[in-house]
Amino acid sequence: RKRILGSDAEALAAFEAFCSVLEERTGKAKDDEAVLGEIPECLADPWFYTILKDPVRLPTSGHVLERTNALQCLLNKQEDPFNRQPLTEADLQPLPGLGELAAKWVRARLAGDDSSAKAAVEEAQVFRASHECVD
């Protein structure tokens, strides 16, 4: 680290503090992942298996993806990756209710409240069925 920053003591101290913050946050993220355990399918992006934060429904196939993943697909081709039907960003159907249920599940798991986590999963399953989402 000293080679990179030279001998400036203030810059070195700032860099050390920055590294400490990164190490702390990385440790917390790993701890949170361990507490969360396996993400229920109804609350996970099917490609990256990450928690849905900003889910969208692809109307031509009914599949649900995280918005950023859907947009990435559309950069390559303006079609639904599941059935090759034409699809644009304007066609994506936001599902904020599903994102809220995913956040509710995360909060419950981090709090150790298994019954609330289970209830959030059940609500998400009902939500997906009522919005004609494909599993």
Furnish the topology, listing elements before pairings:
Layout: H1 2-5, H2 9-36, E1 55-57, E2 64-66, H3 67-76, E3 93-94, H4 96-111, H5 114-130
Antiparallel strand pairs: 1-2, 1-3
Summarize the structure.
The chain has 135 residues and is mainly α. It has helices at residues 2-5, 9-36, 67-76, 96-111, 114-130; strands spanning 55-57, 64-66, 93-94. Residues 27-31 have low confidence and may be disordered.
Structural overview:
The chain contains five helices and three strands. It is 56% helix and 6% strand. With 135 residues, the protein is mostly helical. Helix 4 runs antiparallel to helix 5. It has helices spanning 2-5, 9-36, 67-76, 96-111, 114-130; strands at 55-57, 64-66, 93-94. Mean pLDDT is 87; it is low at 27-31. It has two domains: 1-36; 38-130, Herpes Virus-1 (2-Layer Sandwich).
What tags apply to this protein structure?
135 residues; Herpes Virus-1; UBE4; Ubox_domain; U-box domain-containing protein; 2 domains; flat; mainly alpha
Mean pLDDT: 87
Order of helical and strand elements: HHEEHEHH
Q: List low-confidence stretches.
A: 27-31
CATH architecture of the largest domain: 2-Layer Sandwich
Specify the number of helices.
5
Oligomer: single chain
The top-level CATH class of the largest domain is Alpha Beta
Predict the CATH topology of the largest domain.
Herpes Virus-1
According to CATH, the homologous superfamily of the largest domain is Zinc/RING finger domain, C3HC4 (zinc finger)
Count of distinct strands: 3
Question: Could you say how many structural domains there are in total?
Answer: 2
Fraction of residues in β-strands? 5-15%
General form:
flat
Instruction: Report the structural category.
Output: mainly alpha
Across the major sheet, the strand order is: 2-1-3
- Helix fraction, binned, reads 55-70%
Compute the CA-based radius of gyration: 20 Å
Largest sheet: 3 strands, antiparallel
Distance from N terminus to C terminus (CA atoms, Å) equals 49 Å
Organism: Cafeteria roenbergensis (Marine flagellate)
InterPro entries: UBE4, Ubox_domain, Znf_RING/FYVE/PHD
GO molecular function: ubiquitin-ubiquitin ligase activity
Pfam families: U-box
